[in-house]
């Protein structure tokens, strides 16, 4: 994405992003009164505080309890993390704002959002999702490459407010569209109104989508963005999630970013990636009809070799693994192919300048961690050059020779914990941290009796 700099105009940048000097002026003029300084947590959610804008400009940093990066989905303080815990009293960490990420949020008047980085004693916290992605960006740069990334988000919308959904125990929810509206242009009026507001909000925040469409399941939505820098792409996605939740509540709708929100439905977080040597020199450029260039071959081979061992970073919940079903458009095996949507890795885009699409992450993935895992796989391929298997030209669900996706979070965690690929890519401390998070997630559900179990066994045993 490119941004026009107009430092003497209001509301400043055409893209919606703000420069620090413009923020100072807007605060002095009283147009901005609140700064939302946020750190993405382990689940990719924005966590932080609402700061008085003038106080923020004086300090330009904040503190936050370190348990934000050592907790579970329900924000329960958990033992067993080396970062922090009951034994050290859950000490604070510092949040350092990223001055390139200042955005106005039109649905929160007078407010800007600023992404921040978690540091302690002046050093970045290595388990923080933004830092884990930053590490892979630096490793890729050491090999002479930089990535461009486009994100494709799928999520579900149901009728009724989130509070109404909670009161119903999330049962019997009615999608906002009554049937498959994939690629439809005749949306129900309520959905068209939501799309209009989402489009406007994202443009104002400097996150203009490339496209918004209805997807294959009733109530399923897809939003895509143009290519950009990896960190910026993930920042945009977190703004999108925040906006979707806020706008959906206003429209009396309930969104979910679960990977498998209901039986037979899956929502993905597809990552489109290309490599460049500089702004105009694509490492994936190829003559029409020729073989894939070596950097693209090595990238795909590295992903197929590494991704099986990194699953907790892109499939972090037990629900994640219920998305991997045959003929669901979610992969069940680690395969690749040209334009083949049944594969885990798809080669797509312009014929002379293709890119790869990682279709493995689900909608519940933290974008920073899923992209970090993707870049780690690409780096693994560039460095080690594993053999690239033949492309899948048909139904990859029938390719019994390809490695299967993990069946469960428990299986995936065991592999991740012992993986040399994971340890080399991220270091032992981050691996241990996310192993513990996965173990906590698995344990939270391991002994819960479900509605399905009752329906199958209550009076049939």
Task: Provide the fold topology.
Elements: E1 17-18, H1 20-28, E2 34-40, E3 46-52, H2 53-59, E4 62-65, E5 92-97, E6 102-104, E7 111-120, E8 123-124, H3 129-142, E9 146-159, H4 162-167, H5 189-204, E10 211-214, E11 220-224, H6 230-250, E12 253-256, E13 269-278, E14 281-282, H7 294-306, E15 336-338, E16 345-349, E17 354-358, H8 367-384, H9 409-418, H10 420-426, H11 428-446, H12 451-457
Parallel strand pairs: 2-7, 15-16
Antiparallel strand pairs: 1-6, 2-3, 4-5, 5-7, 6-7, 7-8, 9-11, 9-12, 9-13, 10-11, 13-14, 13-17, 16-17
Detailed description of the structure:
With about 450 residues, the protein is an alpha+beta fold. The radius of gyration is 22 Å and the shape is globular. The longest helix has 21 residues, at about 230-250. The chain has twelve helices and 17 strands. Strand 2 and strand 3 (about 45-50) form a beta hairpin. The relative contact order is 0.12. It has two domains: about 15-120, Glutamine synthetase, N-terminal domain (Ubiquitin-like (UB roll)), CATH 3.10.20.70; about 135-455, Creatine Kinase, Chain A, domain 2, CATH 3.30.590.10. It is about 30% helix and about 20% strand. It starts with 16 loop residues before the first strand and ends with a helix.
